[in-house]
Amino acid sequence: MKYSFLALIIALTYSCSESPTKTYFGGEVVNPNSDYVYLYYDNNVIDSSKIDQSNRFSFKLDNAKDGLYHFDHNEYQYIILEKGDSLLMRLNTLDFDESLVYSGMGSEKNNFLIDMFLIYEDEEKAVNKYSELSPEEFLTKIDSLKSMKETLLNDINTKDPLSPIAKHIAQGAVNYRYFTDMEEYPFINKRRNGLTKIANLPANFYSFRKEVDYNDTLLMYYKPYFNYLVIHFNNLAYNYCKNECNGDLNYIERSLHYSTHKLQLIDSVVTKNKTIRDNLTRNVAFSFLLGRHSRAHNEEFMDAFHKYAGKNQHEEEINNFYQNVQNLQKGLTLPPIHLVDIKGNKVTIDSMSYKKNTVFYFWNYHQRDHQANVLTRIERLKKDYPNYNYVGINVNEDRSEWLQNLASISKLGDTLEQYQTDNIDELLGSLVIKSLNKIIIVDNKGKIIDGFGDIYHRKSLETSLSDSMKK
């Protein structure tokens, strides 16, 4: 429901006395880069507000659910909204997070949320440096940082007591980034200090895990909470495999049994919130299936997935993804690719189209640095492996802007074949493109040499290119 900004200002004055069931949220976006602000609850868009000529937007919510929301204007941030709140915000898109500030009813808890976000960002380098210290020294440093945040939260709560819901979310903003730092410490410490094994940890090192709620409905769409759970289950599975499974410790995280253990662990403890369970097991599935495993191991994993994560709300998506991954296995024929050439002609590249071995690469004209890096690396490969054909596929939708970029590329000396997709979803799905670093290599009959190459993994890429030329 849209609401005029003038009406919002009036609501800020009278909302508490008039109707505690209403919630107001609005503000100003300096240098807007799109026409709308979108409001989400439980990861679903519940409303949109068009930015007016004064760069203002506003929402009025009737009987809104109290809890965690997020707003989006090409970037996003979380907010806590409760009945009776009349929240104003101001931000400048040129400095989105750092410029964000709230006022009005509900501002204290939301300024705390953005403060926690910015403080943790500022602390990231220091915490990484602390990770080189002994476990005892690290605990002292990290506990001190957490204590300062909790003091700030207590001060806010003393001045104007937060509701149980707001306090729970605010405490989660403190806890779960701290918990993540704790879970990551043993592995960062091992890597940065060049150790062969993880340092011995104090008996109480993981005592914070007693505070973890695996089924937290209020935080289930809060990214720091979800990211923590992912890392936590990674660690639990790693330590189980380290103690119970045979194999090279350096390759545990690539193993089938490691991912199977994660599914079992999630299934055993995330028992009261199906959404969290489904999202976590979806993450396990995508992580494994993108790991360049054999067809047989992919099949075994999917058997385990259906056993431990059955009736998943993402099941259709995961099954389709699995099938697309299996279709890109070495030796199979690359699925047909539907494209548009520079003249506007629709082109299908299939097994009959190849005259010689071919390298496919992908780019986006909004990602200027990536585009330049990819083209530079492709030019280098073209000189080192001239017997290959190199085909660039643009993933943007605007044809005129694509052609303008091609003109710029041509001035730099790039005369490689260039196409644009005419169906972005089909292309990304059938070719399993989760990153534009992706490279696909096929032979002159369209048989896949490498369906999961990476433009930045030069050694592996050159092995595929060299070996195929020997045949």
Structural commentary:
This is Thioredoxin domain-containing protein. InterPro entries: Thioredoxin-like_sf (IPR036249), Thioredoxin_domain (IPR013766). It comes from Galbibacter orientalis DSM 19592. This protein has 3 domains: 5-105, Sandwich (Immunoglobulin-like), CATH 2.60.40; 113-326, no CATH class; 337-470, 3-Layer(aba) Sandwich (Glutaredoxin), CATH 3.40.30.10. It starts with a helix and ends with a helix. By secondary structure, the protein is an alpha+beta fold. It is globular and about 75 Å long. Helix 6 (223-244) packs across helix 7 (256-269) and helix 7 (256-269) runs antiparallel to helix 8. It has helices at 5-18, 96-99, 107-130, 135-159, 164-192, 223-244, 256-269, 274-289, 295-308, 315-326, 368-384, 399-411, 424-430, 458-470, and strands at 22-30, 36-41, 44-50, 56-62, 67-72, 76-81, 86-92, 101-105, 337-340, 346-349, 358-363, 389-394, 417-421, 438-442, 448-454. The longest helix is centred in the middle third of the chain and has 29 residues, at 164-192.
